[in-house]
Design a protein that fits this description.
It is elongated and about 80 Å long. A hairpin with an 8-residue loop joins strand 3 and strand 4. The N and C termini lie far apart (about 70 Å). It is built from five helices and seven strands; from the N terminus they run E-E-H-E-E-H-E-E-E-H-H-H. The chain has about 170 residues and is α+β, with helices and mostly antiparallel strands. The longest helix is centred in the C-terminal third of the chain and has 40 residues. The strands form two sheets. The protein has a five-stranded antiparallel sheet. It has two domains: about 60 residues, no CATH class; about 60 residues, no CATH class.
């Protein structure tokens, strides 16, 4: 249902509109609960299953997110003060700004690359520790530890776990 004069969508139309644009919706007050804003699409669907007339979305107050963009928290300093009632960065969406999907994708790829580099560095450090442990075991004639270190180098999960335990215990 749509109330074009007020720029308000209600019911399943509001939910579908919000779902396609990454928006949140509101709920009118009912005898059980007061009015709420900021419902996710899944919360709104649960409520609409019982009474779709409770769900609304003001399209004038919450303009659509343009294709190829998503919403992120606004970095503006107006949000740090209870005395400011406007922000030039996020107006008319108080608290969120549009960011291009390409930027988010680049950011996600960059984070993945950094995580891979960290994992490779951790693996290299662990392999050096295993080598030191194997050298210490060979000098002490500890055949069992040498076999465990060899298994850890080959990637055996149990041997790697045992090497981690030995390293945590102060060996190596």
């Amino acid at each position: 249902m749509t109330n074009a004069a007020a720029g308000r969508l209600t019911g399943h139309a509001a939910i579908d509109y919000a779902a396609g644009r990454g928006l949140v919706v509101g709920k009118y007050a009912d005898p059980i609960e007061g009015e709420r804003w900021g419902l996710t699409v899944s919360e709104a669907r649960d409520i609409a299953a019982k009474d779709p007339g409770l769900i609304y979305l003001d399209t004038l107050d919450a303009p659509a997110v343009r294709p190829g963009f998503h919403l992120v928290p606004c970095p503006g300093d107006a949000h740090d003060s209870p005395y400011k009632d406007g922000c030039g960065m996020c107006s008319p969406r108080w608290g969120v700004v549009e960011v291009e999907e390409a930027y988010r994708s680049w950011e996600a790829r960059q984070e993945a690359r950094e995580a891979q580099a960290d994992a490779a560095e951790d693996e290299g450090r662990f392999r050096r520790q295993i080598a030191a442990l194997a050298t210490e075991a060979a000098a002490a004639g500890d055949t069992a530890a040498i076999v465990i270190c060899d298994g850890a180098f080959r990637g055996d999960a149990e041997c790697r776990a045992e090497c981690r335990r030995m390293l945590a215990a102060g060996r190596g």
